[in-house]
Each structure stands twice: as C-alpha cells, then as structure tokens.
Amino acid sequence: MFTDRRDAGRQLAEHLSRYRNDPNVVVVGLPRGGVPVGFEVATALGVPLDVIVVRKLGVPFQPELAMGAIGEHGARYVDDDLVKRAGVSPDQFEEVERREREELEWRSHRFRAGRAATKLAGRVVIVVDDGVATGSTARAACHVARAAGAARVVLAVPVAPSDWADRLHDAADEYVAVETHWRFGSVGLFYRDFSQTTDQEVIECLRTTSPPAAGADAQLPPPVAARNVDVTVDADGVELDGHLNVPEHAIGLVVFAHGSGSSRHSSRNRFVAKELNDGGIATLLFDLLTLDEESSHENVFDVALLGDRLAATLSWIRQDPGLAALPLGLFGASTGAAAAIWAAASPDSDVVAIVSRGGRPDLAGLRLADVHTPTLLIVGGQDHRVLELNREALEHLGGHGRLVQVPGATHLFEEPGALAVVAELARDFFLVHLPR
C-alpha cells in the first residue's frame, strides 16, 4: 500500500531509472491524480513534466462507452468499428467531438496557467497515472501521445491488474508498474491517502517543473484576491446572510440559489461548491429570504420574489471591485432553479451559464423563452415527475439547453456517488462556459 500519490511516484521512479537525465524523455501525467505521481517521477529522473489532457468521445446514448479520444497537438483517435456498430451518424460524432474539444482546450489552458505545451514528436513519452483499473483512459492517453508523434510510449503506473499489459497490448511500447495484483478492485484501495487532487495542485506541480512561456502571465485569469468569508448581501436594501469563497486566479463566480425549505447551509450545495472551488471557480451561497420571510409559505414558492432577489444579489456582486470582472454563473436547486431562470431572463442579465440540480425550471413559466444562456438541467433518472417537467421546460428554453439524467438517482441524489456526478457535471459545464 502506498502512503499517497507522492510516495507512489517516488517508488515508480525507481523502476524507470534507466531514463534518468535523458534529454529525449518527457513525463506526462494524466490530470488530475496522475500529475502528482508524474511530478515525483519527473523530478527523480531530471526530465520535463507536462500534462496529457485527454477527452474520451463517448457514444451519445452511452457516454461511458468510448468510441474514440481526442487530445492536444491535434491528436485524434477513432474506433471506426465501434462507431459503425453503434450506428453513430457523422453529425452525432461531430457534435460530441465539438463539445469535448471545447472542454479539452479549456482544461489544457487551465492546468498550464498559460504555459506552452511540451512537444512530444520524436521523443520517449512516459505516460503516468495513479493506477490502472479498466485502462480506458490510459489507452486513450497513449493513443494521443502516439498521434502527437511520440517515438516511443511508456505507460507507467504504481499499481495495475496482473493482466494489464495483455489487456492494453496495443496501447504502449512498454508497461511499467510497481505492483500488480490479480484480485483488483479500485485504484484507491492501494493508497492510505487517496484524496482528490485539485486543479491548483496540478497547476503547482507544472509551475515548479516547467519554465513559463513568453507572455504566459498575460494569459492567466485576472488576479483576484482570494477570500473565504461570511458576507452580508445587500439585495435592494434587504440584508441576507451568505458565504463567499474566491480561489486564487478564479475564472468566474457561481451564485447558488437554494430550494424551498433550504438555506445557504445546504449540505448538497456546499458539496457542489467545494468541487467548483477546487476547479478554480468562486462561489456565493446565500439565503434568498430573511428569517421572517421564510415563515411565509407563499414567499418560499414565490418565484418572482426569489428571482428578483437573486437579480438584486447579482447587482450587489457587480458593485464589489474584487468580483466585478468575474463572469457569472447560476446554480439552482428545486425552486432555486426557477429563480435562476427568472433572474437570467432579465434584459440586463450578464449571466453566462446556468446549472439546475433536481430543479423546477418549469415554475419560471413564460420567462423560459427569454433565457438565451447555456443551461444544463441535471435530474435523477428515478425522479420521474421532475424529469418529465424538465423535459417540457427544455422545449421552451430560448437558449442552448441540455438535459442530463443521473442513472438510479432520486430527487435528492442521496444514492452513493450520485451527488458526486452532479458536482462533476456542474464543474465541467461551468469550466467550459464561464471563460467565454
């Protein structure tokens, strides 16, 4: 068992000592967990470290099934046989690739913080991850490295199944693992500390091993003073309690609108906010109503009141010099989703992205048609009534809307892993749209 990813990286480096100080070698880590492992490997070998950002191209009706992969350097790998068997049309494939390419470009820029990508053509590329389970991501990364012109691809991980080299026989030229096991569960079982690697950790690993490219500072997000404080929101003269968390170099700010019977203390919203913060996104969780107002059932379900209150909060944000330049997004849960739609439909709204979690956007009524903001509706696959209402609302949205079901999840996403899926979907959606 490894202590953590850094310990695993140091042990892995011992198995790669023959590549020490070779000027033709570059280590590329798979974000996020593979980067701290790769950092230790690159440091021990005395070679450059970079990331290899890969996006799998999932079959439209079965996203977990990869029909190909794309990467930087214009790399592109397509499983033509699978595309044909799955009956994916050229238009469907193009739409999947366009969406994933946008996200890949943003992630590449985010992780490198403006640094230029390391050229892989003609080099020995050591692809590093924190472990291999199914191997689909590692396979895609190796194909991307090869498509970028790598002369030799080495796939190196701390732990893998005993048959991993046979399973991935066509992916790399060499397979290196510290440990292999025939009874293999998840990669995390082999680490005492397998806590999530944040975007900031990835950025720091690359920053300390790679010199900045010319003009890199100009490509960074505008400097924003980091804050993690309780605040009092002045919403048109009404004082509301809130909590503001602004990471260093935040790329945008997402304002949370809670649902009926909830508040800024919502554990589910705080869970999602933490995921956004780790991705470099600032968050504001606040109470839409005062304590006196909450006592009225009518106020709790008054979408116009909640929407106007949210719009007033956005105006308050714009008056803060430290927040005014940040692109704004909204995250609404339950009735809060209707409030987010209401606020974004305002003619003077500058909201650039909306995410709804188990929301009731239908309660915004005719305001739906006035929303021209990219909107993601996330609904539990077992939340049948709300799912149907979201389908109807999607038809009336004036802008680009998308509905995603979380399989097996009910209204509150209480099932194991369900809320984590929501958080990742929200984070990825905001990472694509906020910088725009």
Describe the overall structure.
This protein has helices spanning 5-14, 34-45, 80-86, 90-112, 136-147, 164-167, 199-207, 216-219, 267-278, 291-294, 297-300, 303-318, 335-344, 384-396, 418-433, and strands spanning 25-29, 49-51, 54-59, 62-71, 76-78, 124-128, 152-161, 174-181, 227-235, 238-246, 253-257, 282-286, 328-333, 351-357, 375-380, 401-406. It has 436 residues and is of the alpha/beta class. It has an 8-stranded mixed sheet, sandwiched between helices. Strand 15, helix 14 (384-396) and strand 16 (401-406) form a beta-alpha-beta unit. Helix 1 (5-14) packs across helix 2 (34-45), helix 4 packs across helix 15 (418-433) and helix 12 packs across helix 13. It is globular, with a radius of gyration of 23 Å.
